[in-house]
Amino acid sequence: MAALQQFKTERAQVLIQSESQKQTSTVNIKQRSVLILRGIDQVRALSQQAKTSYKAFRQIYPLVPNDHDPQVYWRAWRILGRPIGELLYRYNKQMDGQMM
Question: What burial class does residue 77 get, using C-beta atoms within 10 Å of its C-beta: 0-12 exposed, 13-18 middle, 19+ buried?
């Protein structure tokens, strides 16, 4: 009987610990979700700013190909949007990978 009681006690502790870890995990997921949403909001706000601010544009795309003046890319991005943004994103990602 003593062994059975010890087993029940140990099992209860394992279950309590498991539930505690699940709750902690759920809280961490919620916290991360909030941070991701804040980051998305910040990027959207910066993107809106970049339509009128070259400095904000360069925060989003710090590196631009040297085949044209960076201001040309900014003006093209403001007019064409996504296609230029994707080109600049890929360029920045590629250049960042080469710097590592």
Answer: buried
Query: Are residues 79 and 57 in contact, defined by beta-carbon separation less than 8 angstroms?
Result: no
What's the pLDDT score for residue 49?
Answer: 95
Residue 87 burial class via C-beta count within 10 angstroms: exposed 0-12, middle 13-18, buried 19 and up: middle
Quick: pLDDT tens for 41-81. 998 999 999 999 999 999 999 999 999 999 999 999 999 99
Q: Cβ contacts of residue 62 below 8 Å, gap of 6+?
A: 92
- Under DSSP, the state recorded for 51 is T
Residue boundaries of the structural domains of the chain: 1-50, 51-100
Q: How far apart are CA 38 and CA 55, in angstroms?
A: 21
